[in-house]
Specification:
By secondary structure, the protein is of the alpha+beta class. Helix content is 38%, strand content 18%. It has helices at 56-84, 92-107, and strands at residues 11-15, 19-24, 38-43, 45-46, 52-53. It has a 3-stranded antiparallel sheet with strand order 1-2-3, covered by helices on one side. α1 (56-84) packs across α2 (92-107). The longest helix has 29 residues, at 56-84. It is elongated and about 60 Å long. It starts with 10 loop residues before the first strand and ends in an 11-residue tail after the last helix.
């Protein structure tokens, strides 16, 4: 398979009081700095006390996004193992679905009108 269209992992979730971001590799600055290297960003909000907060869902989303490279690698390994393991034919539809997801990730397919990102 060709070189992936995405930023190589590992990715790290940076969860702070006023913002949450996902970066490649280690976190070297806060989620407001170095915007060009941010892979994802969730802005916080001020609660009724005037304190900054981040939605729990945004934190969970950042953690899931940061896990994407490892998830993709694990899924790729399992698909290859399933393709060579006798008796796995009963999971053919699931294996094909996984292969389609891997292809989308590797080729940078957006899912909107099957267009690829520029």
């Amino acid at each position: 398979m060709s070189k992936p269209a995405f930023t190589p992992g590992p990715w790290t979730a940076d969860i702070r009081i006023g913002c949450t971001a996902v970066y490649q590799g280690e976190i070297k600055s806060g989620c407001i700095q170095n915007e060009r290297k941010r892979l994802a960003f969730f802005n916080g909000y001020k609660n009724e006390k005037g304190e900054w907060e981040i939605l729990e869902e945004d934190k969970a989303d950042a953690i899931l996004i940061a896990a994407a490279p490892e998830l993709l690698a694990s899924l790729s390994f399992l698909v290859q193992a399933a393709r060579t393991e006798p008796g796995m034919n009963i999971y053919k539809a699931h294996i094909e679905q996984a292969e389609n997801v891997i292809r989308k990730a590797m080729e940078g397919e957006t899912g909107r009108n099957n267009a690829k990102t520029a």
